[in-house]
Amino acid sequence: MRRLLIVGLLPWLLAAEGHWLKFASGPFEVLTDAGALKGRETLVRFEEFRHAVGETLGAPDLATPEPVRILVFKNAKGWNLPAALAEGRGCYAIVVAEKETVAPDAYSALTRLFLETNTARMPPAFEHGLIEFFSTFDGIGIHITVGAPPPRPDLDWARVHLLMVDPEYSGKLRVLLFNLRQGMAEDPSYRNAFGESQAEIEAKVKSHLDAGRFQTTSISSLPLSEKDFPERLVSDADARLARADLLAGAQSAAEYLALMNDGLKVAEAQEGLGLLALRDGRKEEARSHFTAAIAANSSSARCYLEYAKLEPDGQKAEQALLRAAGINPKLDEPFALLAERDTDPQKRLAHWKAAAERNPRNASYWKSLAECYLAEHNYAEAAKAWTAGEQAATGPAERQRMQAARMSVEQQRLDYEEAEKKRRAAEDAREMEKLKAEARAEVHALEAKANGGTSKADSKAVPWWDGPQPTGKIGGALTQVDCLGSQARLVIQGDDRKTVKLLISDPAKVAIDGPGQIALGCGARKARRVVVQYFPKTDSRLGTVGEVASIEFQ
Length: 554
Hints:
Elements lengths: L1 H15 L3 E6 L2 E5 L3 H22 L10 E6 L12 E2 L4 E6 L6 H15 L5 H11 L3 E3 L2 E4 L8 H11 L7 H9 L4 H9 L3 H14 L5 E3 L12 E3 L1 H9 L5 H12 L4 H14 L3 H13 L5 H10 L3 H14 L5 H9 L3 H14 L4 H13 L3 H14 L3 H55 L21 E13 L2 E8 L4 E6 L6 E3 L9 E17 L4 E10 L1
Parallel strand pairs: 2-3, 3-5, 13-15
Antiparallel strand pairs: 1-2, 1-9, 4-5, 6-7, 7-8, 10-11, 10-14, 11-12, 14-15
Helix pairs in contact: 3-4, 4-5, 5-8, 6-7, 9-10, 10-11, 11-12, 12-13, 13-14, 14-15, 15-16, 16-17, 17-18, 18-19
């Protein structure tokens, strides 16, 4: 009975060999038709690789903006497949044959991708050294081996090799790399990490390369097991689409068309055809495919992104970019394109900031962000953006431009503050002149009222009355005005230092003139020079020696 049961299962087991399975962890998804064991082994290997790179950088749990799809083929069936990391439709793609190991180029490309999407830029020699060092990664299960030399070891590789393998430095490389990612100069970074100068370490690196005795070493691994990754069965349509998504030219185009003819994966196939057309420079055809993919309810961020680049209608393009950013908020390009299109200063700044945070290695993003901060006169944040741009620069000329821009920020701040000081002073002067004009108008209105409706400024000069003219005159400082009901008493310290008191018996009959604000408030006052004409007339009770006819403020 048991034998019959086994025999009965054989046809099912043989059919299952051609089925595609999927395993996923972190940014990786493994699709294979070579069986569950091979799929799990492959995923463990790549997860251990990700762990090793992260441990070296001091940046655990490395991520990517789009998934890394690893296709393990039992039989490629004549497909022209990429050997290293390729950009597929909505993913990065690596192809591995069932009985082959992962190509060094794939490890190199994956290391470069992790650096570009997880860390600030470091000096090129260190990044090149890391890429070369991890190109020879090897692992069996969870046992990781690193340090095997590449075909042509160079000084950059030897530097990383010495600092990873030599027990004197092992474990300290991450400190050096952390310092470099923070923008610290190389010599203090070396001293901080190893207690030795850059020159001392570099001399040892050269000797290490010349000696040519390169050891391998094991580094800590993740406690993984193949059992940690459950398998999921992949439908025939999904397997065909995954293969087409490698964007392998005419082969992928034929697969996309076949899927559409079968009524399967229409949105995805239209997007794939659009990407192939775009790669060949057929922009109008590409836009037509992307439009059809969107009409079929595409859920791909890249579809909306590429459509927006080709769409002449600004409003439609903006909506597509917002949709792309919503589908995959890890992508930087939708935010950069939104920033280029938006005219609102606050929104442009927010978009550039989002783009720079997602891709800190793009110096042009930091430049645009710094310029937005400068437009808002936020000089502190502008200086930070220029500093980040300086570190992101890929060449000495660009780095010098960023540095010069950062150093000019302080002078720009001082110039702005000086201009603001002058502007406020001019505004204050205009406001003061306005107040003076209002005061003069008020005085003229009072004069007009006293003169029966005609102000002194608007009428011909007429005598106050037909009687005698005032014969008394005194020049000096008006120090006090005593209000006496409907009358007032002026206290004047004359030019001869003598104090004179004069009576204003009827304010309506006193002519007042002079520049600036004129007011006769009661009480002691700040001394102001006046010339007063008066009629001599002594009032012993009030202590005055005359009655005021006119007051001229000077």
